[in-house]
Every structure is written in structure tokens, then in C-alpha cells.
Amino acid sequence: MLLTLGAYAVCMVPSGLLLYGCGTNLFVDAAFCLAYLLTTFAWGHALRSRRLLLQRLRMDAERARAEHERRLADARRGERQAIAREMHDVLAHRISLLSVHAGALAYRTRQAQAGAGPALDGTEVAESAEVIRGSAHEAVEELQEVLHLLRAEDGGEPVSLLPRIEDIGSLVADARATGQPVDFHPELTADAVHELRSQLHRTVYRVAQEGLTNARKHAPGAPVSVCLAGGPGRGLTVEVRNELPASPGSDEAIPGTGAGLTGLAERVRLDGGTLDHRAADGTFTLCARLPWSAR
């Protein structure tokens, strides 16, 4: 555009001298033409700038929309993973208890039929059925609590429905009721535990629960130790140890999805901690280290 304007000015000067023969009106015409061309140039430039601005705004809007969709997809994926972790933690423990009780009942019945052991009397059958019924009832109650938390519109989690570190004693009692020898070492004071965040309570509980459940699945009858240690400034450590079975699991072993430790590692990482699991010297160790975070 500027080149065209310059070429027009160069051509206009000799043509004006030839046509008018006087330079007086030449400068007026040149000024008029220059103003006209500059106005046209400015108008065109403004239109082009506006068009580029609209194009840039459309591109920014598209990028913002794509970013929003990506964040929404990530949020939904995170919610699905959280639901899967919670469902696994709740159901795997109770169902493993059901499997152990039912397996013991079936084993005693087969032994009696083969003449290798005494037959179950009515009282023993009733007690076993009551234990199985109670475990199933508790599984349903815990599942209802999880669903209640997921449906909470305000996003809050009622503390009364969340598992706490103090509830690990109940986990140990349930494991001992199935014949699993568990040695429990809670090295935390009640006052210190009371100051911990509710989310940290749940994470510690789930680590102990997963450790006991895995020991019951893969090393039934093997001794298990559960240790809780830590304090302000030292962090919080949850360790579950169990002896490894001497031989591979039988066909009656409790099946697993293999997602328990993966989900547990994600849960611990969200709380700023680390999860380590290893098998060495005939012992499987599950250890979670978490920062001590008070309310």
C-alpha cells in the first residue's frame, strides 16, 4: 500500500505540471490525493486489524473450550478413580472375611463327609451362618456410608461416617475372629491421634485394611503384625508385615483384582506420603509414610 502511494505521488507531479501548467493547484491536488489515500489506507488497516483480532479471539475461545473439556475429563477420571478406590477398600476387606468364614465351613463339611473329622452340629452351623450374615450386613452398611459420602451435595464428608485410626482395632478383631493371628502395636497417643486430619485418619485405616486383606488372601493363617508409629515433626508410619506362604496359593485362594496396592499408592500420594511394598527374607512388608498433618 505504501509503495502504491509513493508511485502515485511520483507519477502525479509531472502529470500535474503538464496538465495545469501551474504549480499552485498541484500541491492542493497532491495534498487532497495524499489525504484520500492515507484515509483509505488507515481504514483498510483498521479492518484488517479487526479481522485479525476476531480471528485471534476465536482461536483463544477454541483453546479455552478445549482446555475446559480436558480439565472436565481429568476431573471425571479422578472422581471415577476415587470411587473405584473407595469401593475396593470397603468391599475387598468384608468379602475376604466372608470368603474365609464360608471356606472354613465348607472345609469342615468336606472333612466330616470324608470321615476325617467330626461333623458340624447345629450350634456350630448356626454360629458360622451368623458370622457370615453379620459380615455381609457390615459390608452393606459400609457400602451405604460410601454412597452417602459420594452423594453429598456440599462436598463435605461427615466425620462420623469416616473410618478413623481408632477403628483399626476393630479390623484386627475381625481378622482374629477368622483365625488370623495378628499382633497389633499402636505406638500413638490418643491426644496426638485426635489432632490429625480426618483424611489422614482414613488413609491410615485403609493402609491397615489393605495389608490385613492381602495377608488373608495370599498368606492365610500366617502371622501378621500391624504397627502404627510417629508423632508431630516425625511423620506417621503404618507398617503391615506377614510371612510369605511356603508354597503357591491353592485353587481355593481368594481371588483379587490386583488394583488394591495401586489405588492405595494413589491415596497415599494424594496425602503427600509414600507407599512401599516388598517381599524379602520370607516376609511381605507394606509400609506407608505420611506427613503428620494436624487439623
Structure description:
By secondary structure, this protein is α+β, with helices and mostly antiparallel strands. Helices cover 63% and strands 13% of the residues. It contains seven helices and five strands, in the order ααααβααββαββ. It has helices at 2-20, 24-113, 122-150, 168-177, 190-194, 198-218, 260-270; strands at residues 182-186, 224-231, 235-243, 274-280, 283-290. Strands 1-2-3-5-4 form a five-stranded mixed sheet. A hairpin with a 2-residue loop joins strand 4 and strand 5 (283-290). Helix 1 packs antiparallel against helix 2 and helix 6 (198-218) runs antiparallel to helix 7. The longest helix is centred in the first third of the chain and has 90 residues, at 24-113. The chain is elongated, with a radius of gyration of 38 Å. Residues 153-160 and 250-257 have low confidence and may be disordered.
**CA radius of gyration:** 38 Å
The helix/strand series, from N terminus to C terminus, equals HHHHEHHEEHEE
Terminal-residue CA separation: 69 Å
Major sheet attributes: 5 strands, mixed
Low-confidence stretches: 153-160, 250-257
Question: Number of helical segments?
Answer: 7
Give, in spatial order, the strands making up the sheet with the most strands. 1-2-3-5-4
Shape, please? elongated
Give the helix proportion (percent range). Answer: 55-70%
Mean of pLDDT: 78
SSE-based structural type: alpha+beta
The fraction of residues assigned to DSSP E strands is 5-15%
Structure summary, number of beta strands: 5
Quick overview:
The chain has 295 residues and is an alpha+beta fold. It is 63% helix and 13% strand.
